[in-house]
Amino acid sequence: MDRAQKAADQWARERPDLDTDAMVLLGRLGEAALVIARDRLNPVFAGFGLQPGEFDVLATLRRSGAPYALTPTDLYEAAMISSGSMTNRIDRLEKAGFVTRQPNPADKRGTLVALTAEGLALIDRAVGTHVANQQAALAVLEDGEREQLSRLLEKLLAGQQG
């Protein structure tokens, strides 16, 4: 029995009037994300000397295409975090030599964050390992189950937005 079901069983005993089906489903969803990140994804990032948020910045720059440069605003909107958090990530990556800040030719007051050659090489190595690790994390599911889960999660997320 997983922790979500255990909690629901306890609520059923204490408050049998509550319908805990959603509690179980969302509890399992949250725990699955937490366990996969903690036990599978984060160790891979650490193996490349990166924190998860730093990997996210490098990956966002890499998938943006050459010249692998975005504004800090584009980066923090892609990551859905505060601008202050993004500034800290960029600072750490710049100090490590993986990104540089450059003048933005489209906005003389702004800057672009760009991958360095070292940053590009690192993310190209890391993303291959990351994708293989994600595949391994989902190997317990059959192809049809993965497709169904993906569609259901897409529907759930779409229903939460505006």
From TrEMBL:
Gene3D superfamilies found in the cross-reference section: Winged helix-like DNA-binding domain superfamily/Winged helix DNA-binding domain (1.10.10.10)
Keyword annotations from UniProtKB, A to Z: DNA-binding, Transcription, Transcription regulation
UniProt superkingdom: Bacteria
Annotated HTH marR-type domain residues: 19-158
Protein name: DNA-binding MarR family transcriptional regulator
SMART domains (UniProt xref): HTH_MARR (SM00347)
An individual GO BP term: response to stress
Organism: Novosphingobium sediminicola
One annotated GO molecular function: DNA binding
